[in-house]
User: What shape does this take?
Amino acid sequence: MTATARALDLTHAAAQAAVDKLGTDLIAYDVSDQLAITDVFLVVTASNERQVGAVVDGIEEALRGLEAKPVRREGDREQRWVLLDYLDLVVHVQHTEERQFYALERLWRDCPVISLTADERR
Assistant: This one.
C-alpha cells in the first residue's frame, strides 16, 4: 500500500508552505504500510518558537485552500513541537532542539521517503 494521491497533494502543499515560512530540513515519509491511521508524516524544523508558530500558520492556511483542516492540533501552547493531524497527513513542526533530541528520522527510517522538490526541502 502506498500513500494516496490526496495525501501526496497535501504533503507537497504543506512542504511548500513550510519552506515559504522558513521551515528547514523537511522530510516526508510514506508510513501507510506501518500505520493504519495516516499515510504520510512530514517533519519540519523551525529555529525558534515564533518560527514554529509561523510555519504552522502557513501550513494551515495553505491546506485550507485545498479544503483541508486539521482534525487535531497539539503543542500550540509551548510552540516547541506542534503536531497537525489531517488524517491522510500528519505534520510535525519541531524546534531545532526537539528535532535533534527526538530524532523522528530514527523511528521512521525504514519507511519510504517521499520525494520533495528542491524548493520544498530548503
Q: What stands out?
A: The chain has a mean pLDDT of 94. The helical segments are 5-20, 49-64, 96-102, 104-108, 118-121. The first strand starts at residue 24 and ends at 30.
